[in-house]
Amino acid sequence: MEKAPPTKRPRYDAAFRAEALRLASESRSTLAAARALNIDAKRLYAWQKAAQQPLPTDPAEAAEVRVLRAANKRLAQELDILKKAIAIFSHPLTP
């Protein structure tokens, strides 16, 4: 039984990565953004991790940064929900 020849891994330029990260941040989920871009979700998660600022070495500051990032993410989700609600309620009712 013969092995299939190894396939070349696709290379993505910095512009594509930046656009993918922007789409992932604006999308409802990273997985959905990866599917829309037709790339592996693990690759997009790795790009997100690499793009994140490192945590400070001081444990107190690191804990504060984690709390602030979580709060920021929660507030961004709440803002998205409110935007969708405005879009829903701004349409007039049809008889």
From TrEMBL:
<dbReference type="InterPro" id="IPR009057">
    <property type="entry name" value="Homeodomain-like_sf"/>
</dbReference>
<dbReference type="Pfam" id="PF01527">
    <property type="entry name" value="HTH_Tnp_1"/>
</dbReference>
<protein>
    <submittedName>
        <fullName>Transposase</fullName>
    </submittedName>
</protein>
<dbReference type="InterPro" id="IPR002514">
    <property type="entry name" value="Transposase_8"/>
</dbReference>
